[in-house]
C-alpha cells in the first residue's frame, strides 16, 4: 500500500524467486480476474520467465499487512479473508520452500524493459481452491531488475 512513498519493487534474481504470494482462505476460493508484472530494465535483454501458479507449499515471504490487501471493485467491501503472515500472503520470498505440486495459471517470457497483463474472461477465471497458495514467480537469466507484480481476485 502506497502512503507517503511509492510502492516497493522486488528485485529479480538469476534463480527462481517468488515475488508475490497469496494464501487463499480455508473457507473460500479465489477467482483470479487479472495479474500483471512490469520491470524497470533499461536495455533489451533475454526475456524473464514469469509464472502464475498454484502451489501446495508456501514460500517464506515478507508478510502483507491487512491494509495492503485492498478491495478492487468496492471500496466499502468487507476485508479480504486471505491469510496473512510470513508463510502465507506476502512478497519478496527469502526461501522458496520445497514445492511438491503445482497447477499453472499462466506462463510468459517478458522483456526486462516492458510489462505484461493478463485478464481472464468473466466466468473463465483461474480458480484457487481453499488453503492453497498463488505465486508470481520469476527467473531472470542476466542481472536482476526491479519488478512490480499484482493480482486481482474475487472471493467466493
Description:
It is a single chain. By secondary structure, the protein is an all-beta fold. Helix content is 0%, strand content 46%. The chain is built from no helices and eleven strands. It has strands at residues 10-11, 17-23, 30-39, 48-55, 60-63, 90-95, 102-110, 115-119, 126-128, 133-139, 146-155. The strands form two sheets. The protein has a six-stranded antiparallel sheet, with no helix packed on it. The mean pLDDT is 92.
Set down the secondary structure blueprint:
Blueprint (H helix, E strand, L loop, with lengths): L9 E2 L5 E7 L6 E10 L8 E8 L4 E4 L26 E6 L6 E9 L4 E5 L6 E3 L4 E7 L6 E10 L1
Antiparallel strand pairs: 1-11, 2-6, 2-10, 3-8, 3-9, 3-11, 4-7, 4-10, 5-6
Amino acid at each position: 500500500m502506497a502512503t507517503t512513498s511509492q510502492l516497493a519493487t522486488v528485485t529479480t534474481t538469476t534463480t527462481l524467486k517468488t515475488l508475490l504470494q497469496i494464501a487463499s482462505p480455508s473457507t473460500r476460493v479465489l477467482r483470479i480476474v487479472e495479474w500483471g508484472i512490469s520491470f524497470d530494465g533499461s536495455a533489451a535483454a533475454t526475456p524473464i520467465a514469469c509464472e502464475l501458479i498454484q502451489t501446495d507449499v508456501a514460500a517464506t515471504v515478507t508478510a502483507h499487512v491487512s491494509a495492503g490487501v485492498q478491495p478492487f471493485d468496492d471500496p466499502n467491501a468487507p476485508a479480504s479473508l486471505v491469510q496473512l503472515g510470513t508463510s502465507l500472503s506476502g512478497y519478496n520470498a527469502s526461501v522458496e520452500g520445497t514445492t511438491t505440486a503445482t497447477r499453472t495459471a499462466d506462463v510468459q517470457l517478458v522483456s526486462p524493459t516492458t510489462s505484461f497483463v493478463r485478464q481472464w474472461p468473466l466466468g473463465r477465471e483461474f480458480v484457487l481452491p481453499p488453503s492453497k497458495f498463488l505465486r508470481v514467480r520469476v527467473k531472470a537469466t542476466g542481472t536482476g531488475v526491479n519488478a512490480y507484480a499484482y493480482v486481482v481476485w474475487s472471493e467466493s
